[in-house]
Design brief:
Four copies of one chain form a homotetramer. Chain A is an alpha/beta fold. Helix content of chain A is 36%, strand content 18%. Chain A has helices spanning 11-22, 47-58, 111-124, 148-161, 175-181, 195-204, 218-229, 259-266, 275-279, 285-294, 321-340; strands spanning 2-5, 29-32, 37-40, 63-67, 87-89, 92-94, 100-104, 128-130, 165-168, 184-187, 208-211, 236-240, 243-244, 253-254, 271-273, 299-303. Chain A is elongated, with a radius of gyration of 23 Å.
Chain lengths: 341, 341, 341, 341
């Protein structure tokens, strides 16, 4: 940790900060600078201790800025866990070198709709079946999902077609219920910092699919993963799904594909991209899916619908069956090429 | 609602959209445009119907964009409820013309700390006592609050000093517990779109203090309020607390003060500003508090601490007792001047 | 164009708007809406007329919003020019299906440095040679480029190695000078809305390489291109180089790769990606270069340096010679695969 | 300056960085950290030297980040120039405690329009007359201003009503011409990093009114001022005019009012707010003007028009004569109150 003092900081203020560090049994390194003094804390501190010291020193007179030189996350960090984490769901391994596609409709609307979607997803070659039972909707007047009935449909259809399933859970108290019916718990972008939910998802032991919040930094994203990991649950899958856009005229969000190599460098957790929410436009899903693949993603999550015109939510970004098939074909060829090199 | 077709849209595609609207019993107005056609839906639709139609038409071939001409919120809209909503908590009225100050520490750390803070808040003339019992912290290793013990301290101290209280609740299942101990339920910026929480807060009937999410648009903010209102709870207080910053070097967030007159125009709900989180720096709290006042806010929420250097969270933005007193004095004089005109 | 009135707009206000449109000889379509009225302008207007009407009607009482249903750009629009524009520079064709790499150092530092860089660029198989003679630097104390001497070095080296050249020009009065020495005029991100410069670049008739501004929308980007095109110069190449980031901790900017398919859909101009400035980190250049390729870009601009540790600017994002060679190899193989399908 | 090494940095890499610093005659302080090493540069360096070292060290193996502990600007910094800079134009002093209002139309459209506007501005009590002769317009098809004719009108009208004048100059080569006719040179938000223009404006010796770019950080803003100051021209006035908005539905930009106290703390230059461009909506200009005043601004720039419905540009944000008078009255009263305390 490095504390930078204000330019006009007095010797007394500098000494007060140094004394405060010494009172914790740590020997500070005072670094008289060009036009201001910096103070280094060289000791190896626990994350808790670091966070406490930061808050308190930042409030002292004459202090300009406190900078952490360590990452604030630890369990999620590749520095402490060098090998890639593999998350296994049934026979599917995420993060192990195969490019995994999670496909399905935004919402589970009925057994017929979801079953029809699942058969298309399966036959096109995707490995995991997605669908929303509880839908987070910006408007209270929009379709909110089938809830428990949706979970039951998902479980039944998943078994019928032989695909592991993933659905979103929106609050901690629903984790046990959702965990009973589906294979992977999805935590949505709006819930990325719903800390009670992260803790319950961690406790469940189930694989957790964590979406990056629309204005979350990489550090905030990995700290959210850290909440799950700190409950003893190592099965966290990260998902880049687009950050908030300055220009919403052509795409709904900005898919931050550079986050893929950034995350692969700094964490051992698998990284998935969601080009459907990342763009919000069906015809941009395929180019962004291919871009995610070559950028190093471990897979993608893609929305499709047996009949998008009848979708009760997010119709404009869902692929039609033939578009989904085309995406699977192109992705398959590209993945084969990439792997072959 | 206005549907704008793509430039190359065929007559068949245009007719298909028109037919789809007619199938709902509505007569569309087709507007052959400069280089593309627009289609208007003149009928008076429920919000539900509008949301459904929008999703489905957006997925049709040849459609470029669907624009709502109505606001997506209704109960929150001043168009449907012209008089200002007053939220009454004990003897304090929020939104009624008096500038209300909510003060207190970020976290409730102990009876002694909170009691000491409350006495300062009260004697300086603030009307509502704030403090965190459950703390949403970006890092799982940071201080998370005293939880139930904090609620009990808050209730006891609130009664001792004679101030209504406000604290954050982070998940729907905790609403009944928190509602038992405090007067106003705060929903934090990270929880603005925690829909199960919004619904439970709505059901509680308690005043709800809703913070704007860091990247939330005004429409998303008012739709979050709509979730609470739609449960039959009219007591919603809005809080602008800073949006995500492109430059975090000098302030933590960007306090969007123009949101105050924007909100006062479009909604009848009271609007509070939070210059503490809005800037993250104690010495910018006073100028931003005064700016919020003259911009038309109904009050402010301000963090103070009996001894910021010992604060377990957010020390750098908390006012010291003498700074809080100065803020109250300046605000009092300015509010008197503004009211006198 | 569609004018949406405020909800409380009076019949007189609605009529005033309609009358104002009629006074221009256009017959407005009044669309009584759900809770507010919309007014459509169906006639085919010139861009000038549209812009004027928009400004004036937006100031009328009772008007809530004026929405253009046409794109504001015309010459840049694919709607008016369906075939891809090919920009030919020497023997290199940009936009014609071959993936073009523009490589070279950030700054031209000396004949030796630039010549050494150019030989590496050429032998690795890149088609165009880049380098800065006039450097736009955030700080007045940073290296500002060799200016005219740099242009002369560029011309000489370009001829020696047999590669077309590109360099940035920062002001309109320097266009004739720069145009004399180099093949392509680059307009930097900070200059995207330097309108006098755009006009001079247009007049020069030289190919213009236009970088997207860090917070520019797609419409603003294409309108900047329109400035060049409107001078009768059809040779405009667009470059996505990263938009302003909310999180600058890991990358300097956010490379908006979805802008590639968006631009390819809405304009006929070639689209290049700049993964060097787009990320600011040398080790993320290769994955983002490959992502740009599969997303449909016509090429990339990449910074390399014979010895990055001695670079006078932007050292942290420049590729070393062996990294540049590796990038060219991987791009070549991927481009061959993509083209073969 | 502090260099933070990557976690896995080898002793050789650390030593290479230290050696590189020593080779410049500076003795580095190596700070073995918790999980990584930091290296401090304690010597007093010129800005040039710092910028060079930063670029080169950032490219070395094992380096994670280079952080400047000094501000990158110097002449603009209050640390080096503690007293407020006063900019005097005719009899008007900007930055000296009086709240200065610069008013006038967006564009100079004709002698009649501008003269009529100027009389209103003068009689309402504003001190400086603004108006655009060269207009930067996003679209090449929008009204571009009267150019030289506009400058002549401005000079004549300014003399007739007895007000100093300000107009925008868009390129360096026009500085001498514009400087001949008007009193203050305005550099627009889009030109904030037009470095050749900044240098010419600096050389002119005229007062320079510098607007913050829409996505500029505070450091970038002050470095732009530094360009002007470094030409020996101390007369720089800063203007906050709104940063790029995530939500453009209700306001055009986000007026960052906290930038006022931030700037007043870190620089000695006067700070003006522009609530007209900052919101883009006439009815939000007054509350934001008052907010800027109490936040500590030295003045405001406000657009007005004798008849906004006939404005050739920006009609929706211009105040009508009676609105401008009301603003001047309210500002006058508030300024008197604030000064009296």
């Amino acid at each position: 940790m490095i504390i930078v003092m204000q330019m006009g900081a007095t010797p007394e203020q500098i000494e007060a900060v140094a004394a405060s560090i010494r009172s914790r049994g740590i020997d500070p390194l005072v670094l008289p600078g060009e036009d201001r003094t910096a103070i280094g804390i060289p000791a190896s501190l626990s994350s808790d201790a670091r966070t406490d010291i930061e808050a308190q020193i930042a409030a002292m007179d004459g202090v300009s800025k406190v900078t952490q030189t360590s990452h604030p996350y630890k369990l999620a960090s590749r520095e402490f866990h060098r090998e890639d984490t593999l998350v296994t769901v049934g026979e599917v391994v995420i993060g192990g070198g195969d490019f995994v596609v999670m496909g399905g409709p935004c919402s589970i609307e009925s057994y017929e709709q979801f079953s029809s979607a699942a058969l298309i997803v399966k036959s096109a070659g995707a490995q995991i079946l997605r669908g929303g039972a509880f839908k987070p909707r910006t408007s209270p007047y929009a379709f909110q999902g089938l809830a428990l009935e949706g979970l039951k449909i998902m479980q039944q259809v998943g078994q019928e077609v032989g695909l592991p399933t993933i659905t979103e859970v929106m609050s901690g108290d629903l984790v046990p219920l959702v965990a009973e019916y589906v294979d992977i718990l999805q935590i949505g972008a709006r819930s990325m910092q719903n800390f009670p939910l992260l803790i319950e998802a961690g406790k469940s032991g189930k694989p957790v699919f964590l979406k990056r919040g629309p204005s979350a930094t990489i550090d905030e994203f990995l700290l959210a993963a850290e909440y799950v990991l700190s409950q003893g649950n190592p099965n966290v899958i990260l998902c880049e799904r687009g950050i908030v856009a300055l220009d919403k005229a052509y795409t709904r969000n900005v898919l931050d594909l550079a986050a893929i190599p950034v995350l692969k460098e700094h964490t051992h957790l698998p990284v998935i991209a969601d080009p459907s929410h990342g763009t919000g436009v069906a015809r941009y899903v395929l180019p962004m899916a291919k871009a995610a693949l070559v950028a190093g993603a471990d897979g993608i999550m893609v929305e499709m619908h047996p009949n998008p015109r009848e979708a009760l939510s997010d119709g404009s970004q869902a692929l039609r069956p033939e578009q989904f098939q085309k995406l699977m074909d192109e992705i398959h060829h590209l993945a084969t090429f990439v792997k072959g090199r």
